[in-house]
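Dear support,

I submitted the protein below through the web form. The confirmation email said the job was done, but the results page showed an empty box. After a refresh the structure appeared. I'm attaching both so you can tell me whether what I see now is the final result or a partial one.
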Amino acid sequence: MKNSENYDKLKESRNVTLENACEVINKIEDRKQSDITNKNQQKLENIKDKIEQDVNKFAENLGNSIQLLNEMQDNKIGVVWHKPDKPHANGTKDLIRDARNVTKDIKELQKDSGEKYGMQILNSIRGAIDLLDDPNSKIDEENKAVAKKYFMKLANEVIDKALYEPDSLKKDIKGYNSKIVFALNDAGVGKSEKETTKMLQFAREAAGLKDEHYNISTLISQKDSWGQERTVIQSDVMLPSLTAKQQQEYKAIANVSSKRNLNNKDLLATLPKWFQKLKPHERSLMHAHAQNIADGKRVISSQFLTKLPGLRNAYEKNLSVVKDQREEDFLRIIAVDKNDLFQREDLGSNPKYDKLPEWFKKLDQGTQFEILDEAKEIGRNKEKRSVDFLKKLEDYSKDFVSKKSPGITKNDLKTKLSNLHCGTPATKIELGDKQAEIDIVKENLKQLQMFQRPGETINLNILNTNLGSEKFIFDQIMKATEELNAGEEKEQFTVTNSAINAARFFTSRQNEVFKDTLVIIGKNIENEKLSDVAIYLKEGKSSKSEALKQIEELAKTEPEYANDLKTAVEARELIDSSNTKFNKHKHANLELSAKMSYLLNAVRDDKRYISKGADKIIKHIVDFCKSGKDRTGINKAETDRNAIANALDVDPKSEVGKENLLLQASGNHEQSMAGTQGGMLGCHSLKDKSFKMIAFIRENKTIRKIFAQKSAHHNSKVKYHKIPSPKKLYRPIKYTYDLIKTSIKRYKLKKEYKNVKNEIKENIAKEKEQQKSLLKTDISSKEVDQNQKDVNKVLIKESRQSREQIEKNIKTRETREIANHKREESLNLIRKFSKKDLELLNECLLG
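What the results page shows now:
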């Protein structure tokens, strides 16, 4: 499929999400938050009652429980879920999280909710069940049955705690993980605990692919420069397609008729090499999900870096603001001056005059001057902005503008950001062939390229450092882009490095592409009143203060253009700043990548003045770190903060700007994305190690604790009570203490597990005895039925003989009396076989 077709598919998908978001915004709901929570708790109660009743629906019930817990932890802070009916072209649907009425209780927002840990445990149980059900495993059927029963009891216990004492799950998660590992290992899954743990890690990641994946949006409230609340939509839209090659590979796997055939050497040799490298249980687990991945209905988890090709944790992030038509009119009015109005008879083709609101053009000249003077004054001084002036504009327009139907549509939205982000397109799949590995990276980059506007260059913005365990990302990306760019008339890919972790101080910065972009923007400025801005963008150095003065003057009549240029000037200063820990811009890379994301979106919008000459610099930034979760999440949060501030004309460092950041963090969009679908189920929030390095978070501990919580640290490995590594012997006292403490915990957990296991085995043995007894009873009943049939045959035969006799002697009365007597004898014979007789007969047969 051509790139333009895929770009159109993504654009269509984006539009469906915005239409569904508008539908939610237009809803008038009077449901109480407590009612929603109670309803979901009742649903979970119902599932809990069914867990141990139906083994066949165990996995389905676990999946439903996980989704309910996810929704319930949102409900607790005032976030309401909506799932509109309208689907996307590929069959996926939207999940709209309405956070406009999120709680203001800071402690509640900072709380690391127990429901998230419940999700993690239930998902691990779901993965454990899949390992037991693997048809290629050699697990004893009795052991499998015992383990399944144990997991069902464990799931019930977890759901019960999630309902009535969720906070206990936070401290119990390692204990539950330990029980799962012990039970699996005891059943025969894995030769050692270490192997069992690795198998469970993959299985729980694969289990997340069972759930329906959504295009996720969050509605938040933000204050604008007029002091009024505006709705902002943060949305992450799934990328709807793989490349033809990727699709072909996943479909080939899906088309294998049975999991049992996956170990057939001849058949396996026809499947992709990376699939052949998977372990037998991994091949079985992925077989079930290959078709959904091929169809673009599932997001590949960030944890599959070493296992699966294709972009991981990949979305298009969009940020849209609900427009205020009164503000739009205000911006058009302040763009003209009195001369334009004085000569309006002769200047009908004046671009500024033509853009004036139609209702304004119909006013008399005196009223126009009055409105213009007041608007200009407000334009010069933001502090004078108030909703009262907007209401005045609304009152003036009423007589000339037809009444608009209630509610908003997609046309009432202004999209300020639209960027792709993902886990690194590099791979850690080991094929034993470096070029084959680079080919996987190239195919991942081609997948990104499918969703670019025709003619665009992709700028790969790497958020990692070129050191240690992350160096492979740079090596592979540089090699792959070099090969893809070779022989092309126009550069397909450029690369920048905006590392945002502590190691950034020990590596060189790579931002020449950003610098070149700003130079071109400077060259495209033709307005003489902006000459200092143009010089600063082209040369940097000492003309920043003059440039800002010119931008300040421009803001009085064209605030949007002024905001765009101010962002460009700030980006230029960040590029020229030194990469040292002691520089005032300690976090220059984060701020720079956020500003360039916003700026290049502005350049791509042909309705914006800054887009002039954009054909020379059109680039689409794709931000990514290793997982696409923590550092990318931080980057997206900062990018959104900048975009919202520019869209609502608010200084992000002002009190309103800080209040908006708190509301943005409270909406939990980035945190939720880390704990679902492309992230790891239940591992909501972003790792606080990353946040210790970020200025806009570190300076505000309140917000940091909302963004960063401990649940994020359970995504990479199954954390359980394992024996401490001997590597810690360099601290012998601590090692000894940890060893004793862990050994005691393991002993208690194993003892508890064995007690429950023995109880289950006894119950299974009793059930078998009961089944045998029922079987014997069933056989006896059949024998009784057969005896009754034989008796009936005798009776019928005697009855026939009696009738024949009666017919012979029917002519005489005496014969009739004899016949009656015989008939009575026959009836008496039948009556002899009473219920008690049959019961006695049954007892004899059983005896």
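Response: this is the final, complete result; the empty box was a page-load delay. The two ends are 77 Å apart (CA to CA).
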